[in-house]
Amino acid sequence: MLVAMTLDEQCAYLAKGCVDVVRADELRRKLERSRASGRPLTVKVGFDPTAPDLHLGHTVLLRKMKHFQDLGHRVIFLIGDFTGLIGDPTGRSKTRPPLTREEIDANAETYKQQVFRILHPEQTVVDFNSRWLGALGSEGFVRLAARYNVAQMLERRDFRQRFDAQQPIKVHEFLYPLAQAYDSVALEADVELGGTDQLFNLNVGRDIMPGYGLEPQIVMTVPLLVGLDGVEKMSKSYGNYVGVNEPAEVMARKLVEEFKGDDAVMWDYFTLLTDLAPAEVEQLRAAFGRGDLSATDLRFRLAGFVIADLHGAEAARRALDSVRRRQEIRINPGALVLEGGTPDVVVTTRVRFSEAPFSLPRLVTDLGFAPSTSEAARQLKAGGVRIAGDKVADLKWSPPGPGKYPITVGSRKVGLIVVE
Amino acid sequence: MLVAMTLDEQCAYLAKGCVDVVRADELRRKLERSRASGRPLTVKVGFDPTAPDLHLGHTVLLRKMKHFQDLGHRVIFLIGDFTGLIGDPTGRSKTRPPLTREEIDANAETYKQQVFRILHPEQTVVDFNSRWLGALGSEGFVRLAARYNVAQMLERRDFRQRFDAQQPIKVHEFLYPLAQAYDSVALEADVELGGTDQLFNLNVGRDIMPGYGLEPQIVMTVPLLVGLDGVEKMSKSYGNYVGVNEPAEVMARKLVEEFKGDDAVMWDYFTLLTDLAPAEVEQLRAAFGRGDLSATDLRFRLAGFVIADLHGAEAARRALDSVRRRQEIRINPGALVLEGGTPDVVVTTRVRFSEAPFSLPRLVTDLGFAPSTSEAARQLKAGGVRIAGDKVADLKWSPPGPGKYPITVGSRKVGLIVVE
Questions:
Q1: Tens of pLDDT along A322-336?
Q2: Mean pLDDT of B64-71
Q3: Comparing C-alpha atoms, which of A201, A194, A202, A193 is closest to residue A173?
């Protein structure tokens, strides 16, 4: 709880990283009134009812929800199961068959396992919009549809583009923004959050609420997160993501070693993936500018914040230590043996000393460093393989005795051969 | 029953007077199949659920429904109560408040009293579309709306005009044609009839039926009837109508004396307001062309057909006799006394012989032939008033004794003074 913040600080904390805030003055007034009355605001966010597999891109929105919770407000995690129960009513999309009630409930559980890594469970209400949209009935839907104009609908960019390009828009597509808007009426939402692509739909809710005797909701949107490649949006299909449920060590490796974004992307990550106040991000930026912090330091800092939020501080420390050690091994592969420790992220293969000599192409392939023994043999001959820091070129290897032998292939693949 | 007609005659009988038949070849095929199987066609026609007060303009459609019944088919008189129960969902029109179930049922009774003057009750099913549209529910409505494109909707002329003129079209207005189309699905209609203004909506039904595994319905439209003035469409608000429930005598007077249409309108009336086959209308037209029938004869013939259908042949004969006698009186006002009869359509005023002399301006005003006694006095002085065929100019009148005295003001106002 950060209720000790001034109203200005609250506004800045909530607006941090947002693309749209419609409207900031109304948000301020609602926050002021909430503080005076002690009545928390209702913050609504809609989610797709299909099976979720969340990554850091999704946490930008979850974190914004959490920011409201940090200030004492109530978040409705709204699962849009009404449309899920319908599926693709045109029957054209094979990927959108109707979901059963059981599937939707199972998906809700999957959501909870992931989102409660960010959200405060006790301030989160998980709800389903079929509760009220189903009850609307034929008549209610007609009445709802009477609240918006066709021309207003065609102001939505994707509708307009399809209409102008003479691509079909089915009439029911006009009903979905209205159904989403009605969710805000049913929940009497004070605020609705969403991605920038949701701006039109969120504003439909704003538009129709006064007709139901409600104050229009505040609409706030967050941007899409760029992926680890620094180019495309973060997405499973681009492989440039960090999954919310991934182990701390995998997260640490991805954020420190796989991140390819430039400085701008790094600062976006600080803004969108941490709870740092804008002023705190500015301090880091200044330290980086003075050279007090290196780019690598920044990655470690960022990874520390992100992993601590998702796995706890202790897990974050261990994961980062592991990455740090891997980096040291890479710089000086001998270090591992001198230290005597075995970071568990290092790939390990175990052999019996009694079975020496060993086929090195086989060991390299077992470690996953080469797709085949012939490719491993090629790398050996090219001199790309080192054991305990020494280049090896022979295909057979006889260790001096049982022990742990670090092996590197190229500059980035680090493994350990445990000879028992 | 006219099932002895050939298939060609059936097609001509049904298409007579229609503006659109979509499509004539399919209609023929359906008729053929129905005759072969003995299964009657289902002919659907939708009516507004608001209180009906039908005039001859409405009978054009009712008569087309009857033509199908004449050939042995089944008509669904569908009352669109689903939209009636909603009223104007925008709340803007004070003239379209939601109707109660009781009001709709009462209106249905009012319809029956009128439409069964034309339709065969035993081949008519009165139904209500709230039965299935209400049951569709939120999900069903979304699915239904997925069956049509926004661009297709905007092909409807009035939508396109409003869209181009930037006048608002509410989204629910797109749902009504789909709801009407779904009625055809629910009823498995073979044919839907309507006014020409309904062509688009009826075709939506045609369009969506194959998606439900049904053969597309045949769409047939009838034109608007021109009113007695021969200019505007027949309408209560223009005062140029003949009401379906009006007495036979009033109908006869309106059709014979008040009709101002030219020959073309008269032949439209024969086509649209009678069951004459096209060939029979042609025979009348030829007789008129040869001078065997006068324009007045045609009016009497037409009125005879129309009134006989609505009030029976005997009532039609009496009503026309009455009009004929009025016309004779007009030509020779003395005729009435000579005949000794008193047609009840003639306006009558009664006075006591003992109170003579009478104020003629007062009598003329009492008969409703002048708005005031001063205007009546003016007409008397101008020589426009005759009693028993003689011009009168004095303001006082002393009848020779008790009796019935026809009085005419100008050439068209004929009344009777009964001196007792």
A1: 888 877 665 555 444
A2: 95
A3: A201
Helices B263-273 and B295-311 pack at an angle, to 10 degrees, of 20
Q: Are strands B42-47 and B191-195 parallel, antiparallel or unpaired?
A: parallel
Those residues with Cβ within 8 angstroms of residue A339's Cβ, 6 or more apart along the chain or in another chain: A325
Q: Does residue A147 have a cis peptide bond before it, meaning omega lies within 30 degrees of 0? A: no
pLDDT of res. A93: 67
What gap in Å lies between CA B30 and CA B16, rounded to an integer? Answer: 18
Q: Please give the pLDDT value at position A344.
A: 38
Q: Is the peptide bond prior to A23 cis by the omega test (within 30 degrees of 0)?
A: yes
Contact A172 B137 (CB under 8 A): no
| Residues B138 and A137: beta-carbon distance below 8 Å | yes
**Band of the pLDDT at A386, cuts 50, 70, 90?**
confident
Residue A340 region, left (φ>0) first, then alpha (ψ -120 to 50), else beta? Answer: left
Residue B128 has phi, psi (to 5 degrees) of -130, 125
Residue B1 has pLDDT above 50, yes or no: no
Task: Give the number of other CB atoms < 10 A from CB of residue B305.
Answer: 17
Could you tell me where the DSSP H helices lie in A148-247?
A: 150-153, 157-164, 175-187, 199-208
Option in A149, A159, A172 nearest B145 (CB): A172
ipTM above 0.85, yes or no: no
d(CA A252, CA A60): 18
Chain B residues touching residue A80 (CB < 8 angstroms):
none
Count Cβ atoms within 10 A of the Cβ of residue B143 and give its class: 0-12 exposed, 13-18 middle, 19 or more buried: middle
- Residue B355 makes CB contacts below 8 A (sequence gap 6+) with none
β-sheet bridge partners, residue A79: A47, A128
Whole-number Å distance between alpha carbons of B75 and B82? 20
CA distance A226 to A262: 11
pLDDT over 50 at B342, yes or no: no
The Cβ of residue B246 has, within 10 Å, a number of other Cβ atoms equal to: 18
* Buried-state track A339-348, b at ≥16 Cβ within 10 A, e below 16: eeeebebbee
How far is it, in rounded angstroms, from Cα A178 to Cα A76?
A: 19
In the predicted model, what is the mean pLDDT of residues B153-161? Answer: 91
Q: Report the C-alpha gap between A128 and A114 in whole angstroms.
A: 18
Between residues A51 and B274, which one has the greater pLDDT?
A: B274
State CA A348 to chain mean position distance. Answer: 30
Contacts B138 to A, Cβ<8 Å: 82, 133-138, 140-141
Among A105-114, A260-269, B345-354, the least confident range: B345-354
Which residues of chain B does A159 touch, with a Cβ-Cβ cutoff of 8 Å?
A: 150
Of A138, A143, A146, the CB nearest to B137: A138
Q: Scanning every residue of chain A, which has its alpha carbon at the shortest distance from the alpha carbon of B145?
A: A172
For A206-246, the pLDDT digits (tens) are 999 999 999 999 999 999 999 999 999 999 888 899 999 99
Above pLDDT 70, what percent of chain A? 93
Tell me: the pLDDT tens digits for B116-136? 999 999 999 999 999 999 999
